[in-house]
Amino acid sequence: MLYDVIIIGAGPAGLSSGLYAARAKMNTLIIEKDKNGGQITGTDEVANYPGAMPEVTGTELVARMVEQCDAFGTERLKATVERLDLQNDIKKVYTDKGLYEAKSIILCMGAVPRKLGVPNEIELTGKGVSYCATCDADFFTDLEVYVVGGGDTALEEGIFITKFARKVTVIHRRDTFRAAKSIVEKALKNPKMAFIYDSGIKEILGDGLVQGFVLENFKTGEVKTIMADENDGIMGIFIFAGYLPETHLVKDMIELNELGYIQTDENMKTNIPGVFAAGDIRVKSLRQVVTATADGAIAAVQAEKYVDEHFGE
């Protein structure tokens, strides 16, 4: 079957694309290699998405998106995309389940936070370990939080977290920050922020929730354990070591920026006609569910216009 559009990735951007494309009566296929929803499924409460009350979990919100897609006739396939051929009018998607063809493609593979790679990091993600201050900072109101990183994002997010946390300590592996001077100055002047230099976390500690961590000083070799205040019992660890866009499938054919994100215009168009990108995979200033769904809607509408113009009778 020749689809009007194939969407690669079933996070919020992909599901939004699927919803809008199917409602426009396009033959639509979403291909996802893993579980639906992407990063949002690791969020216990979605409080910053319009209309979603705090008791709505990321998994529940995604389930509603999937139900909407299915109601409008979106096809979904669990498969791993192995390679793409995007140069001709008919785009080819090669997967471990076979070859699929489409008149247009929307790339929604997302980006993943760069991990520290230390013991218990994965197990305690969403239980005190976070990679998104906007998503999770309010969960740590009046608690102590540690922020790992030394770039613009780490310090900006650290400053944001001080609106909620009692104290924010930034752990940086060097003795000077890579962030812009203006941001560094703002952080240093913040009375709720403290700084640990030349150090990194070796292990995260906790039984169900983060209760402490093992810290190593890279210059002196000193290793010590830092535990949560006994009156709190828990703490937050926010990791801002950068993101890794999932662009390995298209790195030799789609225009990327220096960090590997897909370059698009405001209509989600890439440098290849008929190929669009939406969500965290593209160059943008804010990576949140609300912007991902907006990207997906725009991409689907533009894909519909492209198909009508190039394949319409």
UniProtKB/TrEMBL annotation:
<dbReference type="InterPro" id="IPR023753">
    <property type="entry name" value="FAD/NAD-binding_dom"/>
</dbReference>
<keyword id="KW-0676">Redox-active center</keyword>
<keyword id="KW-0560">Oxidoreductase</keyword>
<keyword id="KW-1015">Disulfide bond</keyword>
<dbReference type="Pfam" id="PF07992">
    <property type="entry name" value="Pyr_redox_2"/>
</dbReference>
<feature type="domain" description="FAD/NAD(P)-binding">
    <location>
        <begin position="3"/>
        <end position="296"/>
    </location>
</feature>
<keyword id="KW-0521">NADP</keyword>
<dbReference type="InterPro" id="IPR008255">
    <property type="entry name" value="Pyr_nucl-diS_OxRdtase_2_AS"/>
</dbReference>
<dbReference type="InterPro" id="IPR036188">
    <property type="entry name" value="FAD/NAD-bd_sf"/>
</dbReference>
<comment type="similarity">
    <text>Belongs to the class-II pyridine nucleotide-disulfide oxidoreductase family.</text>
</comment>
<protein>
    <recommendedName>
        <fullName>Thioredoxin reductase</fullName>
        <ecNumber>1.8.1.9</ecNumber>
    </recommendedName>
</protein>
<dbReference type="GO" id="GO:0004791">
    <property type="term" value="F:thioredoxin-disulfide reductase (NADPH) activity"/>
</dbReference>
<dbReference type="InterPro" id="IPR050097">
    <property type="entry name" value="Ferredoxin-NADP_redctase_2"/>
</dbReference>
<dbReference type="InterPro" id="IPR005982">
    <property type="entry name" value="Thioredox_Rdtase"/>
</dbReference>
<keyword id="KW-0274">FAD</keyword>
<keyword id="KW-0285">Flavoprotein</keyword>
<comment type="subunit">
    <text>Homodimer.</text>
</comment>
